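Good day; I would like, with your permission, to put a structural problem before you. What I wish to show you is a protein chain and, alongside it, a tokenised description of its three-dimensional fold. Please examine both parts with care and let me know of anything in them that strikes you as inconsistent. Thank you for your consideration; the sequence and its tokens are set out here:

***
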Amino acid sequence: MLLPLLFFFLSVLLLFNSTNYSRAAEVAPVTCSDIVPFPRRAHNISITDYGGVGDGRAINTKAFKEAVYAIQHLKREGGTLLYVPPGVYLTGPFNLTSNITLYLAAGAVIKATQDSLTWPLIPPLPSYGRGRERPGERYMSFIHGDGVQDVVITGENGTIDGQGDVWWNMWRQRTLQFTRPNLVEFLNSRNIIISNVIFKNSPFWNIHPVYCSNVVVRFVTILAPRDSPNTDGVDPDSSSNVCIEDSYISTGDDLVAVKSGWDEYGIAYGRPSSNITIRRVTGSSPFAGIAVGSEASGGVENVLAEHINLFSMGVGIHIKTNAGRGGYIKDIKVSDMYVEDARKGIKISGNVGDHPDDKYDPNALPVVKGITIKNVWGVKVLQAGLIQGLRNSPFTDICFSDINLHGVTRPSRTPKWQCSDVSGSAHQVSPSPCSELISYQSGSCANYYS
């Protein structure tokens, strides 16, 4: 079922991309992608100009590094496009620079080498205090940018392949020495566009903007096996003004997860994620479709997710935190979501996630408030929802409206909601919500709190 769905979705994306925008402007879908203007580069170079060989065997690390170095030092007005023609370009990890477009032609594959000894180590993120999986340093992402601006990764649906199976096996066998690399990571950067590229088999998280602003991820396909560990799709982390739209994601972990640091380190760093828009995303995962947390110690606010279609899921919507996290999760709005075949439709939980070390403060309690979820339709959902607040920090201002989550055989067979330490309201929710959510027979609870 998933493969036909994927091919259908890709065909829709290709059709949309080929549309004459001048003629279709009046019917163009709502988008947030205009937060970053798409640059038109006046100068082009090819990876083959620097010795790149796309035979799938030659190592092209030197070619990519020299091409990026040339772009960085030529400093041509308006930036430069680095063209990757059809072929398979095996390479180690490399950095990008400002004012660059990395353009993958149709049939172009940038494929990661699998020898971990060739991967540089970089310091842990200050908002995490250590590597996410292992103490100390972490492996640099396959494609990396730190302190850059005006960067585009795009093309004609070429592929960036992380060849992650060797890393997944190290994780399973507990032989990792350092935290696995992300496929693409930008730090301390702004004005980033990632579009029209297929990402597959990431060693760890796929696309990770951290301490960034003005980031657009649109028309991408992200693929990894369902049993691949921690292969999140897109993880905005302590970042603001992020637009994620019109994409298909099928991975082994959360499709989109909004984060902002881990326990005492995230609290001290104090940089929230804010103004995140997630729109027209389709996908499948044994974990969550849309997630917030659990590492949200710097705070998360003003997240909008709408027009989401999820199939064969663990959880449709998962907002997750824990005692010791601190921070806040507020002003989260989810609407117009379809969920088919899921363990849980909605989960808002205060007991999820581990801790970086024993220095965290168990009394640092997160604040969760202002969660609005409306217009959700689910079929073959084993449990409608679970809300578990914290006894000393209850979740408040929870608003559910027009939600129907049907069971495997009929709606009445869907286990009802389980709730604790929560307050809010509900309107037209089936199966009937828990008693902690006041049920209104008329009107919408979207205006419950003013």
The helical segments are 2-17, 21-24, 61-74, 165-173, 263-269.
